Amino acid sequence: MNIGMVLEDSFPPDIRVEKEARTLIREGYTVHLLCRLKDDQVPDEDIRGVHVHRRIFLYPNHFLAQKWNNLNDLLAFRNPKLIREIKAFVQNYGIDVLHVHDLPPLRSALDAVRRLKTPVIADLHENYPAAIQFYDTPQTLKGRFASNTNRWKKYEYQAVRRADHVIVVVDEAKTRLIEDCHLPPKQITVISNTEDIDYFTGLALNS
């Protein structure tokens, strides 16, 4: 089975993504990762068994297209360019299950595979509607709108209820989603950010 992970940031590093991918590979799954392309990285690379595809770059040389894309993302929490990239990613690599890391790209992923009927797992690394209050967002009208907690809570409520399953990092997060988003407990799995002891004890030590 092919698992497709979506990460809006660059990779590596991301220890949670690495740990989950390592576990899936150990269980016999094939893991593909769609992530952001940085200037000093190659578009495609295998990293410790993960097939990395760096396709997320949002019109760096097309000002109007970039502005239109950003406006959609700001107003509707959906990224037209990312939707196209995710749909192509799923089709090109025969993705059976889409594993989306964190809340911001979740609606784009759900919209991308709506007609493909690909199951979507939402992996929430944090309580994003609460955390965004403490991000370094410019205190402009646009910045305040982008970081409005109530908008993010409403978006989270709608998005996680469309996902087939949700992963969180602590039991308290599971309780919050049950209470705030009315998710059934069986739809949520807790995977904590503990280290993989077996992996680290198997690493060679330099003298």
> Could you tell me the mean pLDDT?
88
Number of helices: 9
| Sheet having the most strands | 8 strands, mixed
Low-confidence stretches: none
Q: Could you name the CATH class?
A: Alpha Beta
Query: Any idea how many domains?
Result: 1
SSE order: EHEEEHHEHEHHHEHEH
Q: For the largest sheet, list the strands in their spatial order.
A: 3-4-2-1-5-6-7-8
Our estimate of the beta-strand percent is 15-25%
Provide a descriptive summary of the structure in words.
- Helix content is 41%, strand content 19%.
- It has 207 residues and is α/β, with parallel strands linked by helices.
- The longest helix has 14 residues, at 63-76.
- 29% of the residues are buried.
Outline the secondary-structure elements.
Layout: E1 2-6, H1 15-26, E2 30-36, E3 44-47, E4 50-56, H2 63-76, H3 80-92, E5 97-101, H4 106-112, E6 120-123, H5 128-131, H6 141-146, H7 149-162, E7 165-168, H8 171-180, E8 188-190, H9 197-201
Please describe the structure with a list of short key phrases separated by commas or semicolons:
globular; 9 helices; alpha/beta; Rossmann fold; 19% strand; eight-stranded mixed β-sheet; 207 residues
TL;DR of this structure?
With 207 residues, this protein is of the alpha/beta class.
